[in-house]
Hints:
1 helix, globular
Amino acid sequence: MKVKIKKLYKDAKIPTYAHPGDAGMDFYTRERVVIEPGQAGTLPTGIAMEIPEGYVGLVWEKSGLAFKHGIQMLGGVIDAGFRGEVTMRAYNSSDKTYTFEIGDKTSQMLIQKVDQVEFEEVEELSDTSRGLGREGSTGA
């Protein structure tokens, strides 16, 4: 599959895969962004992309940033019809200020196939072994 990428700024960095076979492509920030503990910040990538119809870009944390620094990604759905600048929204769940420098990896995106569903309103739903069981219904 080919995904078209448009640099909106000369210094923007195109996403890359760190290793052959990786599921997620790495995205980079084109600005220095400081995120205080318990706060969120927007990380501009400087690129726009054309995700093919029938697919979606799902944004996830970089595991190293999440485990080592408490950086989590918010609002991670990039629809196929979107053509604006891809920006990432990061939340700092740690008790320390975190700084993204220009060119730092911020997040990763997986391109996945999606199906649009048709909704059917009904009076009853089928029974299952779980039924109405919620959190903890499996004993954990």
